[in-house]
């Protein structure tokens, strides 16, 4: 939005012994007209900006009025907001520049070097480092090579008692094994560490009508494109945010997905109907590099995508707790129900094995719904 000039900046002002919201913007007829519709707007000669009283209802009024029209820059208004933090590219600076508490045991440099050399994804590396540091600080008085399998089992048992998730336990095991088996090159030392039993849960899938309702309730064109891409291309949220303008191949009707999970590239489908929306979106928002950008021209925020999907589902009155990944599940299931070969679905999703893709055969209902219920044949 910033690239099109449509954005406003909120400021804290103290006028006539009252807390006020200052609204800064470049001259624009559309913004000026919307500002006039806010509750009792006034002009401050001292601050050279429009202001309204600072109340919860007025804050909501600003967001409601400019939603889908102009970006609301809150960096001066909500100093603790994570709005801009989530758009920053992750780098190793977070590790080298952080401040540690006295006595805190930091991850060994050789651990960091090995992660960098093996080109681990930065998000994965960050999880490994944090999990391993919690582990080595639990056994702070021991040298790392003095820690044995029994001590590791005892630590994992404590995590279980604290009701940590299976995913967290697996991440912790991976982080510990990475040090002893990869960094120290002892591949069999901790072979006996048991992993938590994987829950055999089915993916939650939305009906096509529910997807359609979400698109109708998306709020604006940008949100509609985000929801439409997650579903029609079966994208992970991280893959959506990584898309660049040149990744949309309208001649071949394909989308190129680069550096997805496991550092794999692939092609997936481009919807003809969505392409119309994407072209309209591009003309209005004019992104420069990434298909979806924040106000600073960087990748759109991870949290923002989740909120867009959740808000659209709520407006569509869908009772399920809808997530971006649920749209990916729905894409695969609907393809399978329409008769698409499982191997093609595997390629579109970027799965390494059909075993991963086969889970959708358990939620596809096109065959099940044709089975006559025995009660119906009795009555």
What's the arrangement of secondary structure elements?
Layout: E1 7-15, E2 18-24, H1 29-36, E3 42-44, E4 49-53, H2 56-66, E5 71-73, H3 93-96, H4 109-117, H5 122-138, H6 149-161, H7 166-183, H8 208-216, H9 221-232, H10 237-242, E6 248-249, E7 254-260, E8 264-269, H11 272-285, H12 302-315, H13 324-337, H14 342-349, H15 354-357, H16 374-378
Parallel strand pairs: 1-5
Antiparallel strand pairs: 1-2, 2-4, 3-4, 6-7, 7-8
Helix pairs in contact: 5-7, 8-9, 8-12, 9-11, 9-13
In short:
Pfam families: Phage_int_SAM_4, Phage_integrase. The chain is an alpha+beta fold and 379 residues long.
Largest sheet, strands/sense/barrel: 5 strands, mixed
Specify the overall morphology: globular
Overall pLDDT confidence:
85
- The portion of residues forming beta strands comes to 5-15%
Keywords summarizing the entry:
379 residues; alpha+beta; DNA polymerase, domain 1; 3 domains; 5-stranded mixed sheet; 3-stranded antiparallel sheet; 16 helices; 8 strands; DNA-binding; Site-specific recombinase XerD; Integrase_SAM-like_N; DNA recombination; Integrase_catalytic
Q: What would you note in describing this structure?
A:
The chain is an alpha+beta fold and 379 residues long. It has 3 domains: 2-81, Alpha-Beta Plaits (2-Layer Sandwich); 101-183, Orthogonal Bundle (DNA polymerase, domain 1), CATH 1.10.150; 208-362, hpI Integrase, Chain A, CATH 1.10.443. 44% of the residues lie in helices and 11% in strands. It has 16 helices and 8 strands. The protein has helices at 29-36, 56-66, 93-96, 109-117, 122-138, 149-161, 166-183, 208-216, 221-232, 237-242, 272-285, 302-315, 324-337, 342-349, 354-357, 374-378; strands spanning 7-15, 18-24, 42-44, 49-53, 71-73, 248-249, 254-260, 264-269. The strands form 2 sheets. It has a 5-stranded mixed β-sheet with strand order 3-4-2-1-5, covered by helices on one side. The chain has a 3-stranded antiparallel β-sheet with strand order 6-7-8. β1 (7-15) and β2 form a beta hairpin. α5 (122-138) packs across α7, α8 (208-216) packs across α12 (302-315) and α9 (221-232) runs antiparallel to α11. The protein is globular and about 70 Å long. The N and C termini lie far apart (61 Å). 25% of the residues are buried.
